[in-house]
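Students often ask what a holo structure prediction actually looks like on paper. The answer is less mysterious than it sounds. You provide the chain, you provide the ligand, and the output is a string of discrete structure tokens encoding the 3D arrangement of the protein together with iron/sulfur cluster.
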Amino acid sequence: MVKNRRKRNQHEERVMTHKAHRIKLCWGIESGECPNLIFSEPELQQDLESVIEESGWPELLAGSLPGKIKPLDQFSVSVSGCPNGCSRPQIADVGLLQAKKPAVAGDLCTGCGECLQACREGAIDLQAGLARIDPERCLACGHCLQACPEGALWPDSQGYRLQVGGKLGRHPRLADELPGIQARWRMLEILERCLRLHIDNYRPGLRFGRVVAEQGAGQVQQYSSLEDENGRLKYSHG
Ligand code: SF4
Ligand code: SF4
Ligand code: SF4
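The corresponding structure tokens follow.
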């Protein structure tokens, strides 16, 4: 009995933490060894932590809870290095998926069809002997870019897809995806907007997914200006 209680206390001690956030990077980003990794991103974790720590969220959370911060109280950020989403960005408060979106240079395309074979999404077909990409199907994994022998595919945009408001718990919900692919500085800006929205609506026990469900994902992008007093964006790393 006493042994069980001690064990339970040890377990609770382990899962309790004073951090107001948790950041999960997929194995590919951490190791740099996954063949699916779209691009390496030095100091990403530090930049994400800076945004969270400077947002006021840690102070708000610490001042709102009677006891220690538990994992469910933390603001979660999950980053994946490709659309496979191994770090489960779909159930994080903010999920980030690296993305590289191709475009076709018509004058270089020979219609060889190599890119069709490389695309697992069936997002490429040939029209009048030229490759054509269906933006609705393309997941921006970048595989076709490596497959083209003519250099006829080029990265039209590279950065992050953002998913907001995912969670598990009693009422699970998959995150909503925001439109577009964002450069690193812009992704950090949107993360800060998410935190501001959460802070302004926070009450103990509230998960960000509930805020997104109540207010709509569109609100996240429009929420508050991030220019400093000189009109510059606060985060401009990329
Ligand atoms: S999400 Fe992609 S890059 Fe990251 S570990 Fe999984 S397959 Fe590799
Ligand atoms: S980026 Fe990926 S999903 Fe998009 S067309 Fe190329 S291979 Fe297909
Ligand atoms: S692999 Fe390159 S050259 Fe061949 S069809 Fe695709 S885009 Fe055109």
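The CA atoms of residues 108 and 150 lie 7 Å apart.
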